[in-house]
Amino acid sequence: MVSGMDAPVHESRFQSFVETGRPEKAAERLALLRDRMAAQRIDAYVVARSDAWGNEYIRACDERLAWLSGFTGSAGLLIVTADIAALFVDGRYTLQAARQVDTNVITVVALADTSPEEWLAERLKDGRAVSADAFTEAGRRRFAKRGVTLHFGPDLVAEIWQDRPVPPNRPLFAQPEELTGKSATAKLADIRRALAERQADAAFITSTDSVSWLFNIRGRDIPHTPVALAMALVPMDGKATLFVPDVAMAADVRESLADVATFEAMEEIEAHLKQLKGQRVLCDPARSAARYFDVLREAGATVIEADDPCLLPKAVKTAAEQDGMRAAHVRDGVAL
């Protein structure tokens, strides 16, 4: 059977249930990871099932947890120490996890029995836990409450993943206003009113569903999930900045958004955040990576911790969106 980790991105419009994990490789891969940990004096390494944007459904190149453990569920967290690897899953995945991983090298732990932060606090003994993934600020604080400080270092899994799939990097495309029912200009005006209520100078928005909605853009990099892989810095005045993996792939939407946004590479995010000294920046601790909070505070910005300002207006569906949902139900009913 061909491994999904080595195969090209699945092009079918239908969901695939092919097993893509390689549990027989877990012992070898964990040994490589532990060698890197020992070289950098890391006592525990945390691998979340997520990507830089915090997505639940991710590209093949971001499947670190599946590659390392063999577990392919949509939620899970692996903690690796020098002598034990523990995979934490919720009630949906206790049976699947035990079937998919090599239980001789990975212990499956049900979240109903203990939390990752409790488990690690009992074993860490003042060591260093490092997560290279997009751990949210809220997630970091859950560990901190148990006396565990997460230090965000290099992505050790990426360093040992020699045959890592190439990012698909497909072009972004515009979602026409006849389908959205509201222009990006009008949506940005709503967000800025929310910022004014919070006395914020800017919002840093990191969730792909929010950015896709706000700018009426979509992407094709994640199968069955057409979100644009982008983050956005939205100031009270002037153009927003959209950060994308490859600016060239945004060529089709740059013209339509020329009046409201500029585009930069994802690598430029921290440089832009460091320029916000003295400004009040809204950021959602439940959705945004903890390292961005560190960058903002170190730059001298005041972080306003609040819900993503797109959440509520995104929930108010336009007439066009309601029509689209009805049409989707009709197509779904015919398919069934």
Descriptive report:
- It is a single chain.
- The chain is α/β, with parallel strands linked by helices and 336 residues long.
- It has two domains: 23-160, 3-Layer(aba) Sandwich (Creatine Amidinohydrolase, Chain A, domain 1), CATH 3.40.350; 173-335, Creatine Amidinohydrolase, Chain A, domain 1.
- The protein has 14 helices and 14 strands.
- The strands form three sheets. Strands 4-3-2-1-5-6 form a six-stranded mixed beta sheet, with helices on both faces. A six-stranded mixed beta sheet has the order 12-11-10-8-13-14, sandwiched between helices. Strands 7-9 form a two-stranded antiparallel sheet.
- The two termini are 29 Å apart.
Quick structural summary:
The protein has 14 helices and 14 strands. By secondary structure, it is of the alpha/beta class. The chain has two domains: 138 residues, Creatine Amidinohydrolase, Chain A, domain 1, CATH 3.40.350; 163 residues, Creatine Amidinohydrolase, Chain A, domain 1.
Rg over CA atoms, rounded to whole Å, is 21 Å
CATH class of the largest domain equals Alpha Beta
Q: Tell me the total number of β-strands.
A: 14
For the record, give the distance between the C-alpha atoms at the N and C termini, rounded to a whole number.
29 Å
Tell me, briefly, the overall form.
globular
Major beta sheet summary: 6 strands, mixed
CATH superfamily of the largest domain: Creatinase/prolidase N-terminal domain
Q: Major sheet: order of its strands?
A: 4-3-2-1-5-6
The fraction of residues in strands falls at 15-25%
Number of domains: 2
Mean pLDDT rating: 91
The low-confidence parts are 1-12
Any idea what the CATH architecture of the largest domain is? Answer: 3-Layer(aba) Sandwich
* Share in helix: 25-40%
**In DSSP terms, counting alpha (H) and pi (I) runs of 4 or more, how many helices?**
14
How do the SSEs run, as a string of H and E?
A: HEHEEHEHEHEHEHHEHEEEHEHEHEHH
What is the CATH topology classification name of the largest domain?
Answer: Creatine Amidinohydrolase, Chain A, domain 1
**Helix/strand class:** alpha/beta
